[in-house]
Write a structure and sequence with these properties.
By secondary structure, this protein is an alpha+beta fold. The protein has helices at about 55-65, 75-85, 90-105, 105-130, 135-145, and strands at about 5, 10-15, 20, 25-30, 40. The strands form two sheets. It has a three-stranded antiparallel β-sheet with strand order 3-2-5, with no helix packed on it. Strands 1-4 form a two-stranded antiparallel ribbon. α1 packs antiparallel against α2, α1 (about 55-65) runs antiparallel to α4 (about 105-130) and α4 (about 105-130) packs across α5. The chain is globular. Mean pLDDT is about 90; it is low at about 140-145.
Length: about 150
């Protein structure tokens, strides 16, 4: 069964190892193939936008997903998740799901679970900032002073 994708004007999509950029009109694509990595622009993180530990994990999984040899990213990925679990042990169930999907070769599902890790990280950050308003203000003061 073919995957139906509708692209907005100038939206990009990765199909396999190619980046496809739409023209100035909406377009519908039918993509047929097995085990071809497909990522819409909104699901792509770059090294510049991967600015938190969870986003770095997502980036490592994303690179595994689009790589012809996913194992080249395993070292980076496992180092990142080790650091996260050490700092935030409550993230382990999400990490475990990502790990299981990676080990089973289901990298698309691992990406979806990595999104859950990003959401969990954002939730923890929001809770911290709500209970420690001075810490959030101090962080802003430091970033504007630099």
């Amino acid at each position: 069964m073919a995957l139906k994708v509708e692209l907005k004007p100038h939206e990009r999509i990765i199909v396999g190892n190619s980046v496809i950029t739409n023209t100035d009109q909406r377009a519908r694509l039918l993509i047929d193939g097995e085990n071809v990595p497909i990522l819409r622009e909104r699901d792509i993180l770059t090294p510049e936008t991967a600015d938190t530990p969870a986003k770095l994990v997502y980036l490592a999984v994303q690179l595994m997903y689009i790589s012809p040899d996913p194992q080249t990213q395993h070292g980076t990925y496992f180092s990142l998740v080790r650091d996260i679990v050490t700092a935030v042990p409550s993230a382990w169930p999400i990490i475990e799901d990502i790990n299981n999907n990676i080990m089973n070769g289901d990298l698309y599902r691992a990406l979806k679970d990595a999104r859950k890790l990003i959401a969990y990280e954002e939730k923890l950050r929001s809770q911290f900032e709500a209970t420690h308003p001075k810490a959030a203000t101090d962080k802003d003061d430091v970033s504007t002073a630099a």
